[in-house]
Amino acid sequence: MTLNHISLPTTPSSHARMRDFYLASLKPLGYTPFKEQSGVFLGLQRNYQPSFWLHCCCGGQQDDDEQLMDPKLSVEENRKRLKGRKTHVAFEVSSRRLVDEWFKTAVDAGGIPNGEPGERPQYAKGYYAAFVLDPLGNNVEVLCFNPLCMQLLKAVPTVVTVLFGAVAGHYALGYAKAMGWA
Q: Which PROSITE patterns does its entry note (predicted)?
């Protein structure tokens, strides 16, 4: 079973900032707007699958700008202020270049760096990721996971083709010599 979609809550005062951040930062990953009701919700899609949503929790939630990330404070100071009650969301991409591009775009869109792009061997070999805190302090990760076993599996067709070509070439050359053509 795979995850179909996720929805992050916003407040009336943070919704526009969150919307702008995610529209900009998820664009390099191929996300485009799917459906939106201004100030209430935003759905983003990738490959015609609406899988990422923002929704405004207008009933009973504290509508307080103090809950927004403060770019002047460090990540740790922001976490203390937000009392650590935030979500972690990770998006997987096909290349390290996309991780790097996303990180730059997300920071330019107002995200607070929470882990520069790089290998994360403490997670697994081949795990390359970057982290940014969104305007409400959610930890957003983009990763490219290409473990050695997957690299080897991806190389099998190339290896088989090269071996087949070498064997076929060997027999063709032997036949050509036997026929006096070479």
A: VOC
